[in-house]
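## Example pair
The file below holds two records. Each record gives the amino-acid sequence first, followed by its structure token line.
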Amino acid sequence: MNEAMVGRQPLMASPDGTGESESALVDQARAGHTGARETLAQRYRQPAYVLALQMLGNRDDAMDVTQDAMLRFFTTLNSFDSERRVQPWLFTIVRNQVRDLWRRRRRRPGDSAPDADSLTSQLVSPAASPEADLRRQQLREEVWRALATLSSEQREIIVLRDFHDLSYNDIAQVLGIPIGTVMSRLHGARRQLRARLEEGGRHHA
């Protein structure tokens, strides 16, 4: 496999999803077309990395998980269910790789909370003005510090819905839970996040 697809080079922003359809790219990649594989990697590597970073809070670990997840993505491409979307399927792989890493290190999921400084340095938009950039970074730091106090279960469902804009059905596929559980878990997680943000606001008042 071409190292550019899964390597540790700086990650570019993900494409906007325009261009060739997922199903066409997957079919071509299955047939061994290198260009289709490179396009899939370019399109989905960055979202996979961001999710890993959001779950782990460590850039090096996130890069390692992303590399492993992309390798697994391509080696299992022939078993991909064409009725599913690529991103939630890849996110399932990322989540499993993260949990494998936790198991190897004998950590519980909640022991590895995201670090606000590591995350915001990756997620601030370079196109914004310096003033808007600063305020956006401050807001993200507040949110990530609050998220870091939640359980991993609460944190990941907020990340999938509110940061990656996955549908309830996609989240159910990633987490392996019923849609009703997705909705109730998300409601509870958002309630806890609001409470933590309000507590943080009072402390800084």
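Second record, same layout:
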Amino acid sequence: MKRWFIVWIGFLLLPLLGCQPALSANAQSPPETVDLRRQVQLLNLINGLELTSEQMRFVLEKAQAAQEMREEWKAEADAEELTAVLEELREALMQGENISQELKERYWGLHRGSKGLMEEYQEEATRLAQEIEAVLEEHQLYALEQYVPCIIPPEGELRIGQAQGAGGGAALERLRAIPDDRFERHKEDIARQVMERLEERVHGRVLILDEEDELNRILDLMERARALSDVDFELRREALVEELLEPYDAARPEPDVTAIIARHLLDPAIIPLLEEKLALAGE
């Protein structure tokens, strides 16, 4: 019974993480599945940003420009020659042979050329991303800062960038609903589950916390939240969530909105999605 209850608590605390990261594409995943997964992630982003038709057209124009640059870069990068050189390197290494000076020079020449072209592309992509950033509203920029690619946003979080109190507040509300006797029996386990969920928010970044002190801090906050009346809880909900998340959010890096735009809104996969969205809107 205890094991089942702790698993259930894990599901109960999922809102603390917000939008769940999509699973990385497995090497065995069919290409069409990977493509569909990316389309769903981008549609969640498009819908969550609530882009106007004008903004969608603008993003589409910049994404198409980025795609043209990408194709030009591929054409100039001489991918076939690089592949041929890499195959020769592989064969030499497979045979246990020394790599000839001529082969080394061919590789480094191609590598330097590709690196230079990539730097040019990245500079231009940054410029395009900054142009998109300039036409977005403050709430849309905030949404991008909070964006985590996902397949299905958590229930009740229909738009990305929802205030952090929404997911955390829902988790605290569910904790308040646990019967007193069960909470008393399992509160240490619940506090540990909360801590583990919160640690996932920092995506592997080192978090310097005394574990015992942190568990006591979380337990104290949970007990204070449970002791409040319904009215007082509604008034204190956001402050409690901020208090709960503070040491974890402090460990998260400042988001680079320009880089996020370049990574997602300039993704070539977004082009047909925006075209279809605009067509459905009669644009």
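Notes on the second record: The two ends are 57 Å apart (CA to CA). The mean pLDDT is 80.
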